[in-house]
Amino acid sequence: MWRGLGGEPGQEHDLYRWRGLDGKEVLLWHLPAPGYEIGAALSTDPERVFTSWAPVRGTLVARAAGKHIPVFIGADHHAAHPEVSRLRDVLAELDPQSAFRVSRLDEFFQAAAEGAKAAPLAGELRWSYRHAWTLQGVHATRAPLKRRYSDAELTLTRLAEPLAALARRAGARDRRPLLELAWRALVRCQFHDSIAGCVSDDVARAVAARLDGVDALGREIVRGSLHDLVRHDPDAARARADQARPTLVLWNPAARPRRAIVLADVTLFRRDVLVGPPGKRVPREGDGYRPSLVALVDGRALPVQVLDRRRGGERLDGQRHYPDYDEVDQVRIAVRAPSVAGLGLAAITVSAGAASPAARLTGEGVAVRGKGRSLVNHWTEVTIESTGALTIHDRRGGQRFSDVLHIESGGDAGDTYTYCPAAGDVVARAAGPVKLRRVAAGPLVAALETRFAVRPGASIRQVVSLHADSALVRCVLEIENAASWHRLRARIPTGLAGVAARAGTAFGTVARDPVTVPASQYPLETPARTAPAHGFVAAASGPRGLALLAPGFFEYEWTSSGDLVLTLLRAVGELSRDDLPTRPGHAGWPTATPLAQCPGTTRVLLALAPVSEAEVERGDVLPELWEDAFLPLRSFWLRDAVELSVTPVDVVLEGTGLVVSAVKSAQQGSPLVLRCYNATGRPAAGAWRFGESVKSAHRVRADERESTALVLEGRGKTVRFTAEPHEVVTILVT
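Structure (tokenized):
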């Protein structure tokens, strides 16, 4: 490791044992300040070898905690050293009291572990401001591209992989080769400069093109797997078009039963659009949309709310037919869905023109309504302020949060690596006027749209919505950015000064205090006040708390006054600058990066939820809120459906503090992989429950090796296990 460690008391040496939250340790060797480039200039020229080796040896030996020291002889953008063996021989001759060998890193660690005096180490490793540049400013560089990456990763991990695995388990085709292709393309977007955004615009375009490919593959895997699970054959349906029974298929991507308000886009046939010489063909015609829509499940009517309607076109594809293109009415609806089993499916028939009494819309449970500048349901009331910010009233706990999501813009004189405030800059905050429009009035969904400017060249369209059955405040921000050299953020005052913020990570959460150190103490690089989060960040004390949720990765700042500040975008136009007071010197080559100014439209999805301290500490509440916001019941409209047969699926994870990580096909053979983690610091008793019996269950490592058989209970419908604190648990079932 290089960046993120070093320069603080107790961090003077090179070898450590880093302990994770689960108590497991890894041996860590820390690179010196020059990093992995320390030996890149070593020469085999007899006249230069001493002058090049002496400073390298002095730096490495002074930090050594053991007798084995790795000497890196490569660097970024460098070809391999042309004479590795000769360099070893020359150094051995020059420095006979030392033994030199050419080895791999795993061989070095095996040797270093024997008798090493490694210092203990724990916690996040994101602080090396007195040792080497930490470069935490990259977290918001090219933020729109990072959001696209998060969307692609979410599609593969929580949609494509589970559906493909469930379809294969039901006897359908094996889509692992397609998934492998998609994953390889996604991994090619993960090279550290590429994902960080500190690259040329040409590289950023290449990453965007790869993400286009991943998105296309993901959509096709999801579509094909869903069709297999409901026995829908588009080619067979083409031959029976007159028997079509348009159906809305729901899938629950969470491993727990859920019922919810579902948003769906349905299409209603108007007429054929003929392609090719018409001849004697006569285009079919239909009624399209009629004022009342009825949704039925098992003969029972469900509440429906029409949200939007427009004329458009739809193409139905088949593998053995040319596409069928139709003129349709595109209708966005909200449906109060029935309860759907964990990872299970349900089918709803939707038809137009039948009577649907309004009483049915509010007859089941609670409703939401929009009135004036406010939206209110049983749990939450949200009001649009004159600045475009929100006031959120937690009606359950009585807590109130004002000035939420107040948009602000400050100058950013930095580069793609480092944020730097502009000299004499004054942060501009949205102050109105605000154009307000009601988008939906309830009773299932209520929404308000606002439009306002933040600064010249930066305007916001914001849509805030409440669902009848949820405390979540859902927000969509559409940013039109023509401004340059600025940082656009959304401020959320919580009134919780003095507590730590808890941010989501890959397998749990991390608590972080505000960064308040004076910049003058760190001349090498000013410590960043921002930090990364995955999925959510929350702050709570007692009954008062607020969680901010996003689909994937984002940057935030937690201030000493209790404000949570979300970075929406950083607009900078240089790869690297050498005149930054926050980081003197070039971190890369001076290259213009006009695309890193984030011009055009940026769409940001967010959700906010009042939470208590107990809910945050429980471990599984925030991930479940995140699932409800960004992995809701998914809707798939099959206008050409004929005699669907829905595969019964029921897979549920039980256990306080346990969070689903993956549901996928095994790398080898036919087992289903179920992975979860314990988000708490205490042991958790867990169980996977199945609607249908499984034959066997084995606990394995994350690489699906070292199998241990587990006992099946309840006629093969229950697998129990214990997850130690912060442990990842992977189980194979057949």
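The two ends are 40 Å apart (CA to CA). The first helix runs from residue 49 to 63.
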